[in-house]
Amino acid sequence: MTAVAGERLVDGYALVVFDLDGVIYLIDRPIPGAVEAVGRLHAEGKAVGYATNNASRRSSEVADLLTGMGVPARPEEVLTSAAASAELLRDRLPAGAPVLVVGAEALRAEISAVGLRPVSRADEEPAAVVQGYGPQVGWVDLAEASLAVRAGAPWYATNTDRTLPSDRGPLPGNGSLVAVLRTALNREPDVVVGKPEPALFATAARRAGSGRTLLVGDRLDTDIEGARRAGLDSLLVLTGVSDVPELLAAPESRRPTYVSFDLAGLFDSAAVVRVPGEPEFAGWSVDLTAGGLTLRGAGRPLDALAALCAVAWSASAGPQVRAASPEAEEALAALGLSV
Question: Which of 91, 211, 310, 314 has its CA 20 to 30 A from that of 145?
Fold first, then answer.
C-alpha cells in the first residue's frame, strides 16, 4: 500500500510550497533532483511557492539566488518572513503608519513596499516594532525598539531562529537578537511570523485561493510544525536536518502527513508514504518490546517506516529498533537506523 494508492502525490494539491535550505539547496548548492523537480512542476503548470524565515533578503533577491542555481523562480513565488511580516502589518495598520524597523535593509524595503513608513527612533511614535535579522543590528537599534515597546507599540518578530547556517558553522540568528529584547522587556513578542508559527504558511496558502496546499520541508521543528499549525498537509524529505530517529520520537505537533527520501516523492507513488501506517503494513509488522521496536517482514523501506511510526507514535516509544529478518536489516539500514 502506497501513500496515494498509485496516484501522484502532487496531483492532489493546487500549490506546492517549498522550504529552501535542506529541501531545494544546501548552503549554496542545489540538492540533487531539486532543479528537475521544480522544472517539472512549472512544465505541468503547477503553482509553486518558496517560504523562508530569512528576513535579510527581499523576495526578488531570493528568486535571483535560486535562478542562479538553476532552480527557476520568480519573485512573486517567494515569501520571506520579512514580506509576510510586512503584509500582516499592512492589514493591521492604517496606510502610511510609522513602523520602527530593526533589521536589514530588505525588511525596511518590504515595509515601504506595502505603504507603511519605516522609522528608526522611538520618539517618532511608531505604531509597531518589527524585528528581523540584520548583520549590522546593534545596541542602539535594540534600545530604540525597547523604548517603543515599553511605550505601547506592539512587537512583531519575523522569526525566532536561534542560529543561521554558514560555511563556518551556526551563527547567531534573529532569535538570539529577539532574546536580548525578551530579557530587557521581560516579555515575549506579540507576534512571531516565521516558522513554526502559522502566519508564514497561512499567507502562502492564501495565494493558492481555494485549492489545497502542500508544504515540503526537511525540519520537523519548523517546517512540519508550522504546516500543522496552519492546517496544511506536509511532506518531510530526508535531505536536510530531520532524520528517521527524530521522526519516530516526534510529538504529535511535529508529525508530517507524508515522508519521502527526496523530491521524487512528489511524482512517484512508490517513493512516498503516508504516515503513520498500521503495525502490520505492506508486508511489515512491528512489535513493541521492552528494548524498543522489533521490525519483521519484507517490502519497501518507506512502508517499514510507516509501520514503525504507527507503533512508536501510539506507544511513545523511542527510535531503538531491532531487525528480526535480513530484509528488515536492509530496510533499517536504508532508513539510517542502527540495527
Answer: 91
Task: Identify which of 240, 276, 239 has the alpha carbon closest to the alpha carbon of residue 261.
Answer: 239
Active site residues: 19, 21
Q: Cell for 87?
A: 503584509
> Which residue type, as a one-letter code, is found at position 5?
A
Q: C-alpha cell of 213?
A: 496546499
The tens digit of pLDDT for each residue in 131-155 reads 999 999 999 999 999 999 999 999 9
d(CA 118, CA 128): 10
Please list the residue range(s) of the chain that carry CATH number 3.40.50.1000. Answer: 9-53+196-272, 93-189
Among the listed residues 266, 302, 304, 269, the one whose alpha carbon sits nearest the alpha carbon of residue 283: 304
68: left (phi over 0), alpha (psi -120 to 50) or beta: alpha
Q: What superfamily in CATH does domain 9-53+196-272 come from? A: HAD superfamily/HAD-like (3.40.50.1000)
pTM exceeds 0.85 for this model: no
Kindly report, as residue ranges, where domains of CATH 3.30.300.290 are found in the chain: 276-334
